[in-house]
Amino acid sequence: MMFFSKQFTILTLTLCIAVSTHALISVSDNNPPQDYDLYAQLLQNDQTQNTDSSAEELKILIQAALQDKDTIRAINTLMKLARNYSHQANHKITYDVLWTALSLADEGDFDFEKSEIYRAIGRHYNYFNRREKSLEYLNRSLNKKKQLVAEDKLKESSLTSNYLAFTSSFRELNELKLGKIYLDSCFMYMDSTVRPSNRAFIKFEHAVILNDEEKHQNALETFNEVLPWFTDFIPSYNVLVYTYMGDVAKDLKDFSESERLYAQALETSYRFNAHNDFTPLIHERLAELYFSQGHFEKAYSSMKSAKKLDGIYFDSRSVNNRPLLEIQDAFLKEKELQAKAEQNQKIIQFKQEEKVLLLQKVILIGLVISIVIFGLLYLNIVRAKHRAEKRILSKKRAFEMQKNQEVIELKNKELAASVIKLIEKDSFIDALKKKLSDGTGDIDRREAKQIINSISNSNNDNWTEFEARFISINKKFYTKLSTKFPNLTVNDQRLCALVKLNFSSKEIAKLLNMSVESVHTTRSRLRKKLELSRNTNLKQFIADI
């Protein structure tokens, strides 16, 4: 009985503060709501719903729930009341109501309700770019929900709403790559039990990310797919849908359609008195659009409207937001008065923990510095070892290349020597052929002719064997030569091979069975085909191939 009396006192104080500050301008948040399912149910008929009367009705229901000692019903109704004020962008009152709900949940074993409250608080912190606090409470909510899933108290699909909250928060912070990660988690946990409202908001977030990934047509198709659902159930949320569709149209260079969609978003906000604190961003988008088209007067007017509205909804000096940014939570003060001794003890404990934490930080810093120094030393050792290995490998490769070159040169010398012998042999055979042709000895003329033909065939075989041995030693020579100079004939290629082996013109003449003058002429023609200047040495040029 004492518990409910205390909570009733806190609630009364909170609601009094809410009523006293209700003179705030009626606006709405520029972000998706915290609990999409309940939000959708509350606002299915928001075009005719009187928000203030709903708030009064919810207050009566909260008091009745507390008098009936129905804590869960009281918490859920407080959450609805918080969403009601959040829809008007009365975030200070929303905070007070949420903390009151959390105070009720802290007094009992209401883990699911705590998870939902943490998620709502985290989303509200994000509205004013308090990123760290937002992520702190969103993670609290997610971890609490995961614990319930691990205990088989909830299905895994219930995590979808938490990952959706992360996705929306990162979209608002313009960190869409992180939002994409959590959106993937939404798809991973989404099954047939996920409500249509969550599915609609997931598709909306997916369309925004698709446009950021420059998949503009896919984004537009997804927006058009989800637009009818919002029109039927949450028409006020089309303020955001039309705005992001306008972004897609702008990216597609359809500026007139983009302007129309931005204007439709503003008209929707005015018609439903919803998402008014998103209108500064719409005016900024319009200003950028007008400026890019050279409509400077319109751009100036839109930017002026954006600054004015931004001052109303987000400037810390405005009447609307000053109470929000003052650290002032009625339920905390009430709780402090009721448990002052306990809190003093916690402060002492906190100071002790701070000392321990400071000592831990000092130790950690020292450890980190030691690790960094050790890491740098180790890195230097590894680099030195790598450089040494690289030098050794380089020397080894150079040695192997030199060795291979020496082997090739040796084989070329051997080949040259064998060719010289072949020349000498050919000279002898030429003399023998002449004698056989002119002779009148015991060998008749027919038999002599057969011997001459056999000797000629032997010469051709000798040249074929030479080319085969040359190619086996200089494997890529003919390939490179043909690639660089495709117009060379077979005889030109043979002449290049003999020049590479340092044969003289006289030796080449004997081997190719031509005069020395013909060799000089052939060499001159070869230089022209190779496009060599007079200053270029033919032997050196061919040796470098």
Compose a concise summary of this entry.
The chain has 545 residues and is mainly α.
Fold topology:
Elements: H1 2-20, H2 36-42, H3 51-67, H4 71-87, H5 91-106, H6 111-127, H7 131-150, H8 160-172, H9 176-189, H10 196-212, H11 216-233, H12 238-251, H13 255-272, H14 279-292, H15 296-313, H16 322-325, H17 330-338, H18 340-438, H19 445-473, H20 477-484, H21 490-500, H22 505-512, H23 516-529, H24 538-543
Helix pairs in contact: 1-3, 1-5, 1-17, 3-4, 4-5, 5-6, 6-7, 6-8, 7-8, 8-9, 8-10, 9-10, 10-11, 11-12, 12-13, 13-14, 14-15, 18-19, 22-23
**What share of the residues lie within helices?**
over 70%
Q: In sequence order, what are the helices and strands, one letter per element?
A: HHHHHHHHHHHHHHHHHHHHHHHH
How many DSSP H or I helices? 24
Q: How many beta strands in the DSSP annotation?
A: 0
Shape assignment: elongated
Low-pLDDT stretches are: 1-52, 321-332
Structural class: mainly alpha
Kindly provide the radius of gyration, computed on alpha-carbon positions and rounded to a whole number of angstroms.
45 Å
**Major sheet details:** none
How much is the average pLDDT?
79
Q: Give the N-terminus to C-terminus distance in angstroms.
A: 102 Å
- DSSP strand (E) fraction? under 5%
Model description:
The protein is mostly helical and 545 residues long. The protein has 24 helices and no strands. The protein is elongated. The N terminus is likely disordered.
Summarize this structure as a short list of keywords or feature phrases.
545 residues; mainly alpha; elongated; 78% helix; single chain
